[in-house]
Design a protein that fits this description.
The structure is a homodimer.
Chain A (H helix, E strand, L loop, with lengths): L15 H14 L5 E2 L11 H13 L1 H5 L8 H15 L8 E4 L1 H13 L5 E6 L4 H8 L3 E6 L10 H7 L4 E7 L11 H14 L2 E5 L22 E6 L12 E4 L2 H12 L7 H12 L2 H25 L5 E2 L7 E5 L1 H6 L4 H12 L1 E2 L1 E2 L10 E5 L5 H19 L1
Parallel strand pairs in A: 1-11, 3-4, 3-5, 5-6, 6-7
Antiparallel strand pairs in A: 2-8, 7-8, 9-10, 10-13, 12-13
Helix pairs in contact in A: 2-10, 4-10, 5-6, 5-9, 11-14
């Protein structure tokens, strides 16, 4: 007999995205050719010059890249981020208001620990990114959801926003550009949320990891609407295409950032050092501009091809995302024919057709009967084949 | 007006070690020459061949080192760790019982979340590594301390062990080789703790980050005493000298490791990818043996020099550590002369003498009037000067 595990930690459930990732890795190791549409893994490698710089800094700064970093991040990177926010977002964020983190995910985790109060309400959208829910439950928040439907291009209605937010709200988490839907939150709705945040005095966590992955329209910089109330989450995994290096950052009011730094000292001590030098060079050398100019048109074309091929034939309904890395597609006709759910659908699709997608119900109730498909990991030809395979699968199970 | 920060997160206080680290970085940026004895930062760079391999893998495996890793770690690294544990510890740990983490610190954090129950007792030594306490308080545990005194070479007494552990105990955290004292826990005392763990049914978290930094005697592999009850924390920061890459691992019963993996998916998603390839090569290529053979005699000499110079003259009493990276030195004669405490002592020592050490009270009540000095970060000559400066400082303030 051995002791039991702490019940509270059972709030952390297995991420479907991570489970599928491991499953696909295993299938690949067995030599199977899997169409990998289940993760936001950029398919185009990072910029060549960035990789060369990495070699250079490892050689020349041998000592420093292997040493611990200050807990808040390298001062020069903090300053580079501050300049970058000014350049792209036209916002003034002093480096004292920034914390470099181990990916955006650590930023989300420590922000929830710092800002969400026990027994108060935490409001998230439905569907929304999977990682928030379990941590919110772990800190003892009551979760309320603002539904977003495909009929309204995944924009929340004013009524739904007003219904969810109240003086019981502790925090609202806004993801824009969104994961899984790719919608950019409409500015008038964002302003309404900020107005209500002032009225009811709650925090806004803005997950802006996909802020540079915009194909039509413009990113909405939430901190502009209220810098004292918005905590913005950011990543180098998406636009710089270095997710394996695990680097992100968070900015917001200084007293919040100080608290986040103290929490992180107990989890990861400090951000990884080498990736910080690379991120600094990425921001300051002109590589960022050049790289985005190169990859955004490619990802846009991939999106178009996947979207057009999915919806042609009328079996699948989908929202054409103006941003992000995913298409959120409605396959209810097929799951209903199966008398089953999107989980079972995705499971069979992976094993019978070798196409990996994430079941939509992972993202919330509204996602039931949907699947999330990444359009960045595979090339145009393989995306076309994957879409054909999905339709073939639906025809097979519906027939 | 903006909302308040969640009170519970105030349990996470600023780490003195991290604060000093940032302070020293600032002083150095101003051009000041600081004797850096306040962090477990290996002073000898990682092995040359390891660095060359890093270049090679970045070039040849360009795609893969930038991609996300599976959440539990690369399967080949898990297997390499399993073989390494067999080789050095003579223990059988299947790769399914191992989780790769973002430094040992993430392993400690997720282990506490999974194993420590609210309102139950968590037992730690006094003095002990600073990072446990705040997380234990955050999860709502009641902390009990087992004192260890310099008079007994920082070994806990049997009575103190029996007094602290009971059927109210949820977990005990054992650090061996110890930080800050460098003592290796006596085997009979470890066996007593394991016996009590069986009797009262609690978990043992064994922080073995310094397991290879042993100068006299042998590391005590705690998992050997009860593999079903011991969760072992490990690091690549110390023996491989790559703390900036943030890589560690934890092994223990499979069902615990599965829970830890789910928790980590919500904090860091997955361990960093590039460092895992480097760690695998470090373990499998023969570099580890060669590197330890090279650095251990150097660190042993540095320990001897710092120790001898500190205690000569009789102003300072210290324990000569058989392992680890630190000397825990008693400067009570000086703090009493100052009518002050070790914090104030360390603060003045840093600013007046440019020697950074960690105040002993950071590690617990018993540490009051002590300072922790790293003997690995600086070379022999500088360690000698630092010791002289400390004695000069004591003479100055006592005079």
């Amino acid at each position: 007999m051995t002791p039991s595990i702490a019940r509270k930690s059972s709030k952390f459930r297995e991420s479907q995205i991570r489970r599928l990732f491991a499953e696909v890795e295993k299938m690949r190791a067995r030599g199977e050719d899997v169409y990998f549409l289940s993760a936001g893994q950029p398919g185009i490698p990072p910029d060549e010059e960035l990789v060369e710089y990495m070699m250079k800094i490892v050689l020349s700064g041998r000592g420093k890249v292997f040493r611990y970093s200050p807990s808040r991040g390298l001062p020069t990177l903090l300053e580079a981020i501050s300049r970058d926010l000014k350049k792209y977002g036209k916002i003034d964020v002093p480096s004292s208001n920034i914390l470099v983190t181990t990916g955006a995910s650590e930023a989300i985790y420590v922000a929830i620990l710092a800002l969400v109060k026990e027994r108060r309400e935490a409001v998230i959208f439905d569907p929304t990114y999977v990682i928030y829910r379990d941590t919110l439950e772990f800190v003892g928040a009551k979760i309320k959801r603002i539904p977003e439907h495909i009929e309204n291009e995944f924009q929340p209605s004013e009524e739904a926003i007003r219904e969810a937010l109240s003086n019981k709200t502790s925090v609202v988490i806004i993801t824009t550009p969104d994961n899984p839907t790719g919608r950019i939150l409409d500015e008038s709705r964002a302003k309404l949320i900020v107005d209500l945040a002032r009225e009811y005095d709650f925090w806004i966590i803005a997950d802006e990891a996909y802020k540079h992955m915009v194909y039509e329209g413009e990113h909405l910089w939430l901190s502009k609407l209220d810098p004292d109330r918005v905590i913005s989450i950011n990543s180098f995994s998406k636009d710089a295409a270095i997710p394996g290096l695990r680097l992100g950052y968070v900015y917001g009011p200084k007293r919040v950032i100080r608290r986040l730094e103290k929490i992180r000292q107990h989890i990861t001590l400090c951000p990884p050092t080498l990736p910080q030098y690379i991120a600094e060079y990425y921001l300051e050398s002109g590589i960022k501009e050049r790289y985005l100019k190169k990859v955004l048109p490619i990802y846009r074309r991939r999106r178009d091809i996947l979207f057009d091929n999915l919806v042609s034939g009328g079996l699948i309904r989908a929202f054409k995302p103006p941003a992000g890395m995913f298409i959120f597609a409605d396959v209810r006709s097929a799951t209903e024919a199966l008398s089953s759910d999107d989980r079972f659908f995705a499971e069979r699709l992976l094993h019978e057709m070798k196409v990996s997608v994430v079941p939509g119900s992972s993202f919330g109730e509204v996602g039931r009967g949907f699947i999330r498909l990444s359009f960045v990991s595979e090339n145009e030809e393989r995306l076309k084949i994957a879409a054909d395979k999905i339709k073939e699968f639906i025809n097979k199970i519906s027939g």
